[in-house]
Design a protein that fits this description.
The structure is a single chain. The protein is an alpha/beta fold and 230 residues long. The chain has two domains: 142 residues, P-loop containing nucleotide triphosphate hydrolases (Rossmann fold), CATH 3.40.50.300; 69 residues, Helicase, Ruva Protein, domain 3 (Orthogonal Bundle), CATH 1.10.8. The strands form two sheets. The chain has a five-stranded parallel sheet with strand order 2-3-4-1-5, sandwiched between helices. A two-stranded parallel ribbon has the order 6-7. The protein is elongated and about 55 Å long. The termini are far apart.
Length: 230
């Protein structure tokens, strides 16, 4: 049987402690609990817009479950066939909304296997199960366990999270810099963290702890258009 393990880099880049819950505290608490269970449990499905934290939470769960065994990670781009060996600690299906017909069939087969108590299954997509453009039996499976709707960070939450992460890196962000970032770029932590990476690099080059607007604009210009603007 072919098993697709979660890439080490993917597991290493996300932790529960790094997730800013905002309105998503219930989902975070559920996945933290799921990370430690050994008995068979219902599946969990996370849905919400891009940047709401779905993949971060799945990767954090995968990293936590990896201590118990291998993690199999599948998404809309994962090559077929989708099969796992016995003893796997977690199976993940990300980007469920984008699965083609063949991968829908493969995902349904994973749900059937998981129903036998073989391993926990977690999935995510951009829409609630009922609205997914998928075959009916797969939509039913995705909605048959725990379902959590994730909300993007509010302005205040994004501001607080950005400042806290900058402080942890030793970067001082003024209100004008934070206003500039939040008014021009997506406010999810994935994009904000990429922005901080650029600022951290530029501040190190300039040997400056405080980030000014000119330094910020230089960092963004040097980095090209990798970070999505609003």
């Amino acid at each position: 049987m072919k098993q697709i393990p979660l890439p080490i880099a993917a597991a290493a880049e996300a932790r529960f402690d790094d997730f800013v819950p905002g309105a998503n505290a219930a989902a975070l608490a559920h996945l933290r609990a799921l990370a430690g269970v050994s008995a068979p449990v219902p599946s969990v499905y996370l849905w919400g817009p891009s940047g709401s934290g779905k993949t971060h939470l799945l990767r954090a769960l995968a990293a936590a479950r990896a201590a118990r065994g291998a993690v199999a990670w599948f998404d809309a781009a994962a090559p077929l066939p989708w099969t796992v060996d016995g003893g796997v600690a977690l199976v993940v299906v990300d980007d469920a909304h984008a699965l083609d017909a063949a991968r829908q069939h493969a995902a349904f087969a994973l749900f059937v296997e998981a129903a036998g108590g073989s391993w926990p299954l977690a999935a995510a997509g951009r829409m609630p199960p009922v609205d997914l453009p998928l075959r009916d039996d797969l939509r039913t499976r995705l909605g048959g366990g725990f379902v959590f709707a994730l909300q993007p960070l509010s302005d205040a939450e994004a501001r607080a999270a950005l400042r806290a992460r900058a402080d942890a890196r030793g970067i001082a962000l003024g209100d004008d810099v934070i206003d500039y970032l939040l008014s021009r770029f997506a406010r999810d932590m994935k994009h904000l963290t990429r922005l901080l990476d650029r600022l951290d690099d530029q501040a190190w080059v300039d040997k400056r702890a405080r980030v000014t607007l000119p330094l910020l604009k230089r960092a963004l210009a040097d980095g090209g258009a990798e970070v999505d603007a609003r």
